[in-house]
Amino acid sequence: MRVRARLSAVLVAPACALALAACGGGSDGEQPLADTAPSPTAPTASAPTLSPSPVPSPSAPAAGTSAPAATSGSTTPRSTPTYATPSAPVTVSPTPSGDAAAADDLVREVKVTVAGGKVTPPPSHVDVTKGTVVRIIVTSDVADEMHVHGYDLEGELPAGQPGSVEFTANRTGSFEVETHESGLLLFQLLVK
Amino acid sequence: MTGPAAGTALLPPGADAVLAHGIGGRQDLPIPFSYALTGAALALVLSFVLLGVLWRNPKLTGERAGRPLPDGLARVLDSPAFAWTLRIVGLVVSGWFATSLLFGKDIATNPAPYAIFILLWVGIVPLSVLFGPVWRYLNPLRTLHALLAAAMRTRPEDGLYPLSPRVAYWPAAVGLFAFVWLELVAPDRATLPVLRAWVAAYAGVHLICAAVFGSRWFDRGDAFEVYSAFFGKLSPLGRRDDGRLVLRNPLDGMASLRPAPGLVAVVAVMLGSTAWDSYSGSTRWVSYAQQAEHRTLVGTLGLLAAVVLVGLVLVAAALLAGRLGHVAGSGRERVPLWQMPGEFAHTIVPIALGYVVAHYYSLFVLEGQRAVILATDPLQTGADYLGLRDASIQASFITPTSVSVLQVVAVVTGHILGVVLAHDRGVRLFPHARAVAGQLPLLVVMVGYTCAGLALLLE
């Protein structure tokens, strides 16, 4: 009987390990969000792209703001400039001053679109290391609010226009980023 | 470093922020894959090693085990004064938070949701594991019922009708499911109107049932008392069958959980709901569920499926174990095959405890502090009754590595306790020659539960 038990141990062990590996492999295979890779902030170069902050003229149409992106597209090609909505205190930050610390600074930009109750790209994990500056840019087809759980940050999302939140990820853990009105999970921010 | 925009866009003080996703904004990071693999391998190897080296004759004596406490201590703990002290503590603390629930503002600084989801639901577990079925004493509903009975000059034990023994744990299983549904599925579950409705319904049902059936209704009908009693079986402090308070091997305590109708259902809710809590938070599930038309329905069905799956797997494995172990033929104790699931249900409790610790440890430590701090201002009027307004949440000892290690250790430890319990029950029920074969189905199921638990921690 004990021989049989050991035999089954020999058989079950690899099977279980395989199953587990398959499980974990599946989760690893999740598609990363279409965000720009962590890029060192280039204070001077990126300034034009983000310069509509801190207080843009509320009437500035989206088309108008896309012009600077086209001209200075070399630094952050895929980022449409976003601007602070009047009610969200400071969503696009001034770029860090070029002191010694700035060399370590990484800005992780995550862009999400919400249309018809559908989140694009589909909710997934975004991994950042502690201390990274995270910039979340969300465009929703209906007026909404985004909420970064745990950090308790909120950003207005006017219908059809990108709204953003920027903060330093200085607490480790997993944090849900979601919309308030529609209650959609946009992604999980993993701060390691 | 201090980021340029750190702390900007913070909620304005007193913002009408609703905790849209329940309590606690922070969750644990997924554990490293290597940790999960190590845990699974450990669980697997230890399971079969234990099967080979553990005792051949049953050792656990359940309710008969234990060394009596010193007389003086036992007399104090058993005294009516001590029981009433605990009851009054329970009444005062729950009254405090009930005030917040009923009369507080529906804003993020109201402590009521924290009291229900953190202090009660999670806090009851460590308290019970340390001291036994504490909720039996703290339960404000039981105390209210006792006070009402006293006011009407009747004994609380007396009901209008006898309670059929066939009911047993079923009301608790239903109540537990109702609570985990509130915790994990209900829309706007952290808002006061929803919590008020739920608490009012729960209290109403149980007070009426206690009036009809007497206070023994709470023993097996109250979800939180049963939850506390089951985890309390793992406490080193227990009551022997002769009524004496004893110190005992937690495994003996756990083995004293005897089969009764609804037992398997309670255990399935305990384990299945925690598993569902993990799974339903994964991006994989969320991306599916939030596209669904009826989110509440989908969530309810998912939770129900998790509970039913855990229960069915346990029942199937126990029946197969009885078959392979020839239990009905020539066991030491003639137990019919259909009772096998109940005989082995207690082995799932330590596994559920492992899940609970892994899942709620950091939440309890962090949000439990918040609950106490918020309690200083029960009506959100700016009061500071407990002098805690300026206290801050201590989080420095919650590091990703320590949490991950603790999670894996908890899950694997729960697994090992479950295996040992199943082994002892196996050698008690099955004839010598069939004991190992009889244990295999449950061993496989437990390894499965453990691997699943670890896999969920990867999400």
Task: Walk me through this protein's architecture.
- Chain A is of the alpha+beta class and 192 residues long.
- Chain A folds into two domains: 1-30; 39-191, Cupredoxins -  blue copper proteins (Immunoglobulin-like), CATH 2.60.40.420.
- Chain A has three helices and ten strands.
- In chain A, strands 1, 2, 3, 5 and 8 form a five-stranded mixed sheet that branches.
- The longest helix of chain A has 27 residues, at 2-28.
- Chain B has a three-stranded antiparallel sheet, with helices on one face.
- The two termini of chain B are 29 Å apart.
- Chain B is mostly helical and 459 residues long.
- In chain B, β3 and β4 (245-247) form a beta hairpin.
- In chain B, 63% of the residues lie in helices and 2% in strands.
- Chain B contains 20 helices and four strands.
- Chain B has one domain (33-457).
- Chains A and B meet through α1, β7, β8, β9 and β10 of A and β1, α1, α14 and α20 of B.
- β9 (173-179) of chain A pairs antiparallel with β1 of chain B, so a sheet runs across the interface.
- Chain A: Residues 36-50, 60-97 have a biased composition (Low complexity).
- Chain A: This is EfeO-type cupredoxin-like domain-containing protein.
Quick rundown:
Chain A: This is EfeO-type cupredoxin-like domain-containing protein. In chain A, 23% of the residues lie in helices and 30% in strands.
Please give a handful of descriptors for the protein shown:
heterodimer; A: 192 residues; alpha+beta; Immunoglobulin-like; 5-stranded mixed β-sheet; 10 strands; disordered N terminus; B: 459 residues; mainly alpha; 3-stranded antiparallel β-sheet; 4 strands; 63% helix; Cupredoxin (chain A); EfeO-type cupredoxin-like domain-containing protein (chain A); signal (chain A)
